[in-house]
Amino acid sequence: MKILFAMLLLAGSFLATPAAANVSCDGAATLVCTDSALRALNEDLGAREALLKAAAMHPAFRSELAEANEDWEAAIEDCAASANAAACYGKRLTQRIAVFDLLKRLFAGPHLPQSAVEACSARGAASNACYDGLFAAADTVYAITARAFQTSLAAVNIQTPTAPDGGTQASTAEEAFRAWRTAECAALSQSPMIEQGEAGGVIACQIDLTWRELSGLAALLGRQPHWSERIPDYAPRIRACLDRGRDDDVDLRVVDIFMSEDGEVIRLMGSRGRYDCSALAGTISSFAATQGRSVRPGEGEAAFIPVQGLRPPEQVLAAKAGCYETQAVIVAEARLSGWVAVSHCE
Questions:
Q1: What does the pLDDT average to over 95-106?
Q2: Domain locations in the chain as residue ranges
């Protein structure tokens, strides 16, 4: 059923454009546009939206996202009449950034963290606030995704290992999943195998289950693998770029792979700076220091760190080591081995 539905979904165009997520400042004099802190948040939200526009997703999802953006636009406009408009705008923008950060990770990559507890620990944020923020964003994104997926209640029951408790009373797929999620996490919290008072508790469990469900639905809604999930495909080019780059720098790692006007670019970072490399198979076509200081949205959220003697990836990543979840990768035919590190931090 999943395969059939995926084929039907992918038959549509991926190019529909949703309503804007951030506040337009073209000719506007709203507080969001005139206050430097609020404008920075608004631009941050816009950057995440820009990445999503290039991501593969079904028109049904873009349509649901556009409707969600329209509802959010109405909500943020209410801040103008608030007694503390700046605080209201700041809260709404921060909440929407969390939603779009999750959407960006879901559809543009890299993959979501495996554990909400590890994600909150890595960010160093206050635990309760971090869990509440992650859960609110996950639940909002789930609602958008579930509506776009448009499955029957029966299909949702098939996807989950156990029929959701309360499923017979649920009238929508959203309700069915939430009922199952609540029951599953409540049961796990009472299990003798789970340490009582464990970090995150029930809410972390619900975040993890929602992330897992979202990852499956996103694949059916058109999500393509992020470059960090396709290291074997890029291995010959990465190997060539690393070999060339060592003439100029040390501690090199791949921090981004993206399309430019001149073709696909592998961006490296070393101890002296950043470099852009283009290669066809194992042959370098160009290698140069990155122009400008600006960092591409999403750059560095994932990295490929090649094996460098006996040094672990944490030593290469230095101060940010605690932010990353690492996984070993070996591509023997390309003589490439190392670790993919995905950031939990903002």
A1: 92
A2: 2-220, 227-343
